[in-house]
Specification:
This protein is α/β, with parallel strands linked by helices. 37% of the residues lie in helices and 18% in strands. An eleven-stranded parallel β-sheet has the order 3-2-4-5-6-7-8-9-10-1-11. The protein is globular, with a radius of gyration of 18 Å.
Length: 290
């Protein structure tokens, strides 16, 4: 269908121009505080994380101290997973209810939570960030769980029926290999979300994947193009979880050329690229899906 990747990128960017104009938003989410409902504990010890990223979150019990010292307008509620793949934030439902009553906007990771808990929690959530994983081998290798594509679809649809949901796709989740990402995009075409966030595997020290290579940039670019072409009216974000250094500099520029809408914590090269392309740059101070 396309002669090469450059042609596909031009097609993707033209779709973005038609539907969203020549704008790019850069997100600096310092007004969103990430809270962990499990402190630094996670039962799954996933191949790509091993609990590492929980260290950057504030235990939910300590949120009041942080709110005093920072201009916080929203929260990301997250934590480690249980052996079944859910994030047990429902154990803190009274705190969540209180935050909502105080006027904060709430985004949450629920994982593969049961239907009743999802329905109860979604009363207080503005949006849910939900990782979609369809490839059976990836689920087993990364999360150590005997779960299926159908389990993810079931939880996703229950959330979608009860509040807004922003699906998340991790490119290269299976040890840096692209596997299953296109199937997720195809699935989302049937009922396009308002927002979609892409993140990219970071080979992280202290994990099983610390020595793998991040996914090939051309392959990442192709996935981003496919999403823009397949989901022409969906806001597409490039989230904060992506490799740093030279990789990020190149990725951010390519992402702009693929027609994404928003980049979290952009590299300087992204800003320069946007200026070179005469784009209108706007900024936001919260989590990209908010």
């Amino acid at each position: 269908m396309y002669k090469d990747l450059s042609e596909k990128m031009r097609t993707a960017f033209d779709i973005k121009l038609r539907n969203f104009g020549n704008e790019i938003e850069f997100a600096y989410p310092n007004q969103t505080l990430a809270l962990s409902t499990t402190s630094n504990k996670c039962s799954l010890k996933c191949a790509h994380c091993n609990g590492h990223y929980l260290e950057n979150m504030i235990p939910i019990e300590d949120y009041k101290e942080k709110v005093k010292s920072r201009n916080i307008t929203s929260f990301l509620l997250s934590g480690g997973c249980s052996y079944e793949g859910d994030v047990p934030i429902n154990t803190h439902i009274q705190t969540i209810k209180k935050l909502k009553e105080q006027g904060y906007r709430l985004n949450a990771h629920l994982g593969l939570m049961d239907k009743e808990s999802i329905i109860e929690l979604c009363k207080y959530l503005d949006i849910v960030s939900f990782d979609l994983v369809f490839d059976k081998e990836t689920i087993k290798e990364v999360y150590k769980m005997d779960k299926s594509k159908e389990d993810y679809i079931k939880a996703y649809n229950t959330i979608r029926e009860n509040t807004e949901v922003a699906p998340h796709i991790c490119i290269g989740l299976k040890g840096g290999k692209v596997k299953g990402e296109y199937e997720i995009i195809e699935y989302l075409q049937k009922n396009p979300p308002n927002k979609l966030t892409f993140i990219v595997l970071i080979p992280t020290k202290g994990t099983e994947y610390e020595d793998v290579e991040p996914p090939n940039l051309k392959e990442v670019t192709d996935v981003l193009c496919e999403a823009r072409i397949s989901l022409p009216n969906t806001e597409i974000n490039l989230g904060c979880m992506r490799p740093r250094g030279v990789y990020r500099k190149e990725l951010d520029q390519l992402a702009i050329m693929c027609g994404i809408n928003r980049i979290v914590l952009p590299s300087k090269s992204a800003k320069n690229k946007a200026i070179d392309m005469n784009m209108t740059i706007t900024e936001c101070k919260e989590c990209c899906v908010l």
